[in-house]
Amino acid sequence: MVEPTASLARSALIVLLASLCVALASLPAQARAEETRQAFIELSASDDELYVQQQLHLRVKLYYTNNVIQGHLNDPEHPDVVIEQLGEQRQYRELLGGESYRVVERNFVLFPQKPGQLQLPPIEFQGTARHPRGHQYRVSHSATLFPLDIRDIPESFSGRTWLPARSVEIHEQGLDLDRPVEPGENLSRTLTLTAEGLPATTLPDLAPPYPDTLRAYPEPAQRQSSATEEGVLGQLRQTVALVPVPGHNGEATLPELRIPWWDVEEDRERVAVLPARTLRLAGPVGKANARPAASATDEAQATATSSADIRKAEAGHWVWPLIAALFALGWLTTAAAWWLQHQRARRRASATAAHPEERGEGERRWFARVCEQSRSLNPAFFDSFPVWARQLTGRPSPTLEATLGQLGDETLRQLIQQWQQSLFGRNAVPAPDGKALEEALKTTRKAWQQRRHGGSGKHRLPDFYPEGLRP
Predict the structure, then answer these.
(1) Do 263 and 344 belong together in one domain?
(2) What is the tens place of the pLDDT at every residue in 39-48?
(3) How high is the pLDDT of residue 132?
(4) Which of 91, 169, 318, 349 has a Cα at 20 to 30 A from 274?
(5) Radius of gyration (Cα) for the chain, nearest Å?
(6) Are residues 172 and 275 in the same domain?
(7) Could you give the angle at which helices 400-407 and 410-424 cross, rounded to 10 degrees?
(8) What percent of the chain has pLDDT over 90?
(9) In angstroms, rounded to a whole number, what is the distance separating the alpha carbons of residues 383 and 394?
(10) d(CA 268, CA 165)
């Protein structure tokens, strides 16, 4: 009877020791779990599937208790994603699971640049907490966002610039269509393109064609991005001065402007439309002034002819010289009226062509600016380049394509078009070499300077048509 009792006691002792070991082993794990709840991260995203270059709204929230005394929270990053923080970070308190936490909230907008599956690296927090007993210990936590499915540009999209957005609108200001426009009058037209869900740097330039009866002098486009609760709002504003060409009347039609874009909410292509506009052009002032002179000439001629009939027998020898003198007086009056009107038109056109950004800055300073922007591939180049070209050639250049056509350098044209395709094209095109672009600019400038000095000798014949009246 002794041996079974001893064996039972030994078994009970072994079970007790095993339970104690398990309890002791679980204490560090429980302590670590408690320390982990001192700080943790929550991630939320607006979409799990989106198009390339479409906006994704990412919210990062760090929860931590009063025991956490310091720490560092890293931001999201990825080589194939353009990431911008949306506003300033927020700090507040939140009750979660019956416990009060301090919260740090950061919002970001992400623009994936390549199609396929996208996995962002984990977002991590490393910090230090103080135990109620006084000692300090490290706390850390990380969170990983779910994989994102990035879709390519749809084959059905018809636009030249891919614009995935929540909304795109285009508006116009400045033109008064209720009254006729006088020749040489200075008109100002402002076009504004607004896109919800895209930064301003991705919006295409607004360069609509204009009829031959109007001269167009565009100013550099102004781009601005702002933060909203839904993400980013991009805006491009383009102002152009329009001057009616003397010698035209009737109507001048500004063509309809259409900007295709992709509605990411309805998943279909839409088009932002600015309807066509029609301006009424008043008749040329020179001809209007000529009518009274011509009428006076005809009346004088009739009077002289009547007098000649009455006094033909008496003084027929001086009638025809008088008629010739009256004709000459009429033509001189007409020519004087035309010359005065032409001078006023030239002054108005010169004042219109004098852009504020060009005042006080010569061609050399603008050339240094475009060279610096080309070396660094700064998109501001596309605003400075037409201004420099006007300084170099002395000719208006309403669009980038018109500017390249005036300069006539095929190498420069190819490099700039390659740059445009790398920024706004549907296919992945590498950006050009900045130094090669700078060399092409220098070559073009040198060719124009040689042409100007070589063709401006003292024996050069003057132009047949006056300035402003070339056909």
Answers:
(1) no
(2) 999 999 999 9
(3) 85
(4) 349
(5) 38
(6) yes
(7) 160
(8) 39
(9) 17
(10) 11
